[in-house]
Amino acid sequence: MAPQLMDKATAEPTAERGGARGGAARLGTALLRSLRWAAPALLGYLVVRAIGIAVLLDWHVVYKQVTVESGRSGLYSLAKLWDAIWYQKIAQHGYAGTPATPGPIAPYQPYAFFPVYPMMVRVFWWVLPLPIYYAALVAAWVSSLAAAWGIFAVADKLYGRRTGVIAAVLWGVTPYAVVESMAYSELPFCALAAWTMYAAITRRWVLAGVLSTLAGLTRPTGAAVAAAVGIGAAWVLLSQWWQERRGTLRAEDRIAWWRLVLGAGIAPLGFVGFIAWVGYVKGSATGYFDVQKAWDSHFDFGKSTWESFHHMVTTQGGVWLPDPMVAATLLVSVVLLVVSILQRQPLVLIVFSAVTLVLALGDAAYFNSRARFLLPAFGLLLPVAAGLARSKTRGLAATVLTSAALCSAVYGGYVVFVYPNSP
């Protein structure tokens, strides 16, 4: 008996190690297969963003006197403009070590910025032999690739590979795609939001909840991701209960109720936890919202948006080009949301697009930030991508995407290096 027991004892760890290695190998194979399938989308996205960056650098040569430091390169300017500086200071010194700066309403404080992107910047800074501002840019660009991959994955699942490729490239040529070339937190947030939607659509609700938590630690609009996961999971749970009562629920379609509840339950923990932590640090339950007042950022149910529209229509003076561009983006987004609903996109994706749009329309922050707030709402692009994919006109998709890439690049340079405010 002793030799048999010893053989079993020594064999089991070996089998476990083999199983672990086999699991890792299968995961690696699956990731490689997925990457190959998404390669055309990622290559197309890289091409259009390379065009955008090349045009941005040309703009910098002409208008470098208005950048952060006229003696520095265009990439340095992209890495250091506006909010990017805050993320890098937090990555270097932490929240407590980053001092507030004077503002017209109240002091600007680092507690307005969520922690995931600064943590990424710090990791890239540790790993790469680069200054922190270039590490921040690399972290953002890597995140943008992950976002394009996630957008492709969702569109491929719902509409097919061709639509997925077009959707990923289309996301890279929107009017405010210039943000995808900057050291901003929108990029990791877009990546987490896209993969959260993919996890939910493929019925991985616990994973969706985990990714939603991370999204909520990246930007305050993580509330839209959490709402989508929570409402989507509740709808599936209710649908399963109804089908079970009628005896129409197939065994292979059943999702364990605890997975749905757990996914929905953990989805909002990221942004709720960060807001609670800021409240604790500031000694007030409204601490985070008090910090946001410095930027005049609060939800006013569309009052300031309406006033901005009214001003553009009635003013006797001129307006900056981004004003009508943002207005058009908001109006087109409303139309695309209606089309998305009519095309019966998955509920989780519709809720995410709708809540993101509501937050963009209802926020009191300065008007031209609204288009940037809509950047994660990639679901609004899917009807356009699907239409281009179905078109019988030869070369239409390539022509539209190429033209959009050039227009987006030129406009992006104007927004970054000529327009006086942040995009």
TrEMBL record:
<keyword id="KW-1133">Transmembrane helix</keyword>
<dbReference type="InterPro" id="IPR007315">
    <property type="entry name" value="PIG-V/Gpi18"/>
</dbReference>
<feature type="transmembrane region" description="Helical">
    <location>
        <begin position="123"/>
        <end position="152"/>
    </location>
</feature>
<feature type="transmembrane region" description="Helical">
    <location>
        <begin position="42"/>
        <end position="62"/>
    </location>
</feature>
<feature type="region of interest" description="Disordered">
    <location>
        <begin position="1"/>
        <end position="21"/>
    </location>
</feature>
<dbReference type="GO" id="GO:0016020">
    <property type="term" value="C:membrane"/>
</dbReference>
<protein>
    <submittedName>
        <fullName>Heme exporter protein D</fullName>
    </submittedName>
</protein>
<feature type="transmembrane region" description="Helical">
    <location>
        <begin position="258"/>
        <end position="280"/>
    </location>
</feature>
<comment type="pathway">
    <text>Glycolipid biosynthesis; glycosylphosphatidylinositol-anchor biosynthesis.</text>
</comment>
<feature type="transmembrane region" description="Helical">
    <location>
        <begin position="347"/>
        <end position="367"/>
    </location>
</feature>
<feature type="transmembrane region" description="Helical">
    <location>
        <begin position="325"/>
        <end position="342"/>
    </location>
</feature>
<keyword id="KW-0808">Transferase</keyword>
<dbReference type="InterPro" id="IPR038731">
    <property type="entry name" value="RgtA/B/C-like"/>
</dbReference>
<dbReference type="GO" id="GO:0000009">
    <property type="term" value="F:alpha-1,6-mannosyltransferase activity"/>
</dbReference>
<feature type="transmembrane region" description="Helical">
    <location>
        <begin position="396"/>
        <end position="419"/>
    </location>
</feature>
<feature type="domain" description="Glycosyltransferase RgtA/B/C/D-like">
    <location>
        <begin position="135"/>
        <end position="242"/>
    </location>
</feature>
<keyword id="KW-0256">Endoplasmic reticulum</keyword>
<dbReference type="GO" id="GO:0004376">
    <property type="term" value="F:GPI mannosyltransferase activity"/>
</dbReference>
<keyword id="KW-0328">Glycosyltransferase</keyword>
<dbReference type="GO" id="GO:0006506">
    <property type="term" value="P:GPI anchor biosynthetic process"/>
</dbReference>
<feature type="transmembrane region" description="Helical">
    <location>
        <begin position="373"/>
        <end position="389"/>
    </location>
</feature>
<dbReference type="Pfam" id="PF13231">
    <property type="entry name" value="PMT_2"/>
</dbReference>
<feature type="transmembrane region" description="Helical">
    <location>
        <begin position="164"/>
        <end position="185"/>
    </location>
</feature>
<feature type="transmembrane region" description="Helical">
    <location>
        <begin position="205"/>
        <end position="238"/>
    </location>
</feature>
<keyword id="KW-0472">Membrane</keyword>
<keyword id="KW-0812">Transmembrane</keyword>
<keyword id="KW-0337">GPI-anchor biosynthesis</keyword>
